[in-house]
């Protein structure tokens, strides 16, 4: 093999007198480039911003040397998103997502041409599904957009842009360079009006006026044809003895919808919280000029839509649909969000906690897991809220000692609780009544 220094590529590099140097990117050029590429607004954030502490390690892990995060939004067409016809709304989501990814890719392509390292995480899917059901996303776009001055979070947990409202999708580009302009700052007010139309529109009651959010309810219905819902459908196919048995559980319309998602991109079942949001300078006029008409034309058709709402058995969402939307049909399904590790279980627990089912429960639980995972954790439930922390803190009302694989098998329905107790794979200190009450706070995955 020839020596490295005699290789033509190396010789051309040496002859060009290039060297690896730090770069400073012209921020005004970068902003103009993104706007020309299709973005509707742009902001810049230093990777050292304190508000990014929670995800800085992940960001730098994606692109070592990251110094700047470029956040941008692309507007969606409002009336498409508001349509009760899901094919129309979903097409708008898919097309805008592709635009976001294309804008980000154009910027990274140009920066690389200029000798600047950059990376564009996807706006939505695909994600790192080998981590499912843990943290499957690589970058959290919403907190970055807030830090970049592109809006604030509304009651419905969506970013609301001061001009475009929540009818935007978000993109982020990691850049291994400083900018020639100062970084952006968060806007000094929240565009959210506190109107709670999103609360009224959500078919599963996932949004509460105080900002609490039932992720499990939202994921089970809205993401029925994404993530866990698809896994549950596959399970139905596998467990069905024949086509007739399958047809007894899944309607022809549901099968066709799943086929459509597999063929053209997974479809959201709702996103009504975004559809009804009137916030934003360019959005608010119809709401302020005639609130009754706005409600009748935007909110009521979504509330009255005849549709199947997917809920977990015994969940707060099931009770909500039956109470608020008797015209809608409920179908109890598994969420498909079951954890495959104890670490993932603890991560997901606050997201699937059922406030309504926890009524009257005030207790602290210690979990001591051994075997494949050695983890101690404390779970505190009181006043309809849950706190999960690593380690054993304060005095517990119930202590559970469990083999990690056995406990996961029990939660998945593959292990019998009595078997586990008899074989000492599971031991409990404290009142079993409290442990039973704990279990009711989490619908079966």
Describe this structure in words.
A hairpin with a 5-residue loop joins strand 5 and strand 6. The radius of gyration is 25 Å and the shape is globular. It has 445 residues and is of the alpha+beta class. It starts with 7 loop residues before the first helix and ends in a 5-residue tail after the last helix. The protein has helices at residues 8-15, 27-37, 56-62, 78-82, 86-113, 141-147, 197-201, 215-222, 227-239, 243-249, 252-264, 272-275, 285-289, 291-304, 316-324, 342-352, 404-411, 417-422, 432-440, and strands at residues 24-25, 41-46, 68-75, 118-119, 152-153, 159-160, 168-175, 178-179, 308-311, 329-332, 363-370, 375-382, 385-390, 398-403, 426-430. Helix 2 runs antiparallel to helix 5 (86-113).
């Amino acid at each position: 093999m020839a020596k490295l220094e005699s290789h033509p590529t190396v010789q051309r590099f040496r002859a060009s007198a290039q060297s690896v140097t730090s770069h400073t990117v012209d921020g005004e050029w970068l902003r103009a480039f993104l706007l020309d590429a299709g973005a509707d607004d742009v902001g810049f954030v230093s990777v050292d911003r304190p508000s990014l502490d929670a995800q800085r390690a992940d960001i730098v892990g994606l692109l070592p040397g990251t110094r700047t995060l470029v956040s941008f939004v692309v507007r969606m067409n409002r009336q498409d998103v508001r349509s009760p016809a899901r094919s129309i709304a979903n097409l708008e989501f898919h097309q805008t997502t592709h635009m976001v990814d294309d804008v980000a890719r154009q910027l990274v392509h140009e920066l690389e041409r200029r000798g600047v390292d950059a990376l564009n995480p996807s706006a939505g899917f695909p994600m790192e599904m080998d981590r499912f059901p843990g943290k499957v996303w690589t970058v959290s776009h919403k907190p970055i957009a807030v830090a970049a001055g592109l809006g604030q979070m509304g009651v419905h947990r969506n970013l609301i842009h001061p001009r475009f409202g929540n009818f935007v999708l978000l993109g982020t580009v990691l850049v291994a360079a400083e900018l020639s302009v100062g970084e952006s700052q968060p806007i000094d007010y929240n565009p959210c009006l506190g109107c709670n139309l999103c609360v009224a529109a959500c078919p599963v009651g996932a949004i509460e006026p105080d900002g609490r959010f039932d992720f499990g309810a939202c994921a089970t219905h809205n993401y029925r044809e994404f993530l866990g819902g698809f896994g549950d459908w596959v399970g139905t196919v596998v467990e069905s003895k024949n086509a007739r048995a399958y047809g007894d559980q899944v309607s022809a319309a549901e099968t066709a919808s799943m086929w459509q998602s597999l063929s053209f991109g997974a479809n959201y079942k709702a996103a009504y919280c975004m559809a009804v949001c009137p916030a934003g300078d360019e959005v608010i006029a119809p709401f302020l000029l005639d609130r009754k008409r706005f409600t009748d034309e935007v909110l009521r058709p979504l509330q009255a839509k005849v549709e199947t709402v997917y809920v977990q058995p015994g969940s707060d969402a099931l009770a909500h649909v039956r109470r608020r939307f008797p015209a809608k049909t409920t179908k109890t399904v598994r969420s498909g969000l079951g954890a495959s590790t104890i670490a993932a279980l603890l991560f997901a627990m606050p997201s699937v906690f059922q406030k309504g089912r926890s009524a009257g429960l005030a207790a602290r639980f210690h979990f001591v897991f051994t075997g494949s995972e050695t983890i101690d954790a404390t779970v505190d439930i009181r006043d309809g809220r849950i706190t999960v922390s690593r380690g054993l803190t304060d005095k517990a009302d119930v202590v559970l000692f469990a083999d990690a694989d056995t406990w996961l098998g029990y939660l998945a329905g593959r292990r019998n609780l009595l078997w586990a107790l008899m074989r000492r794979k599971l031991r409990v200190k404290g009142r079993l009544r409290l442990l039973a009450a704990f279990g009711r706070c989490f619908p079966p995955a």
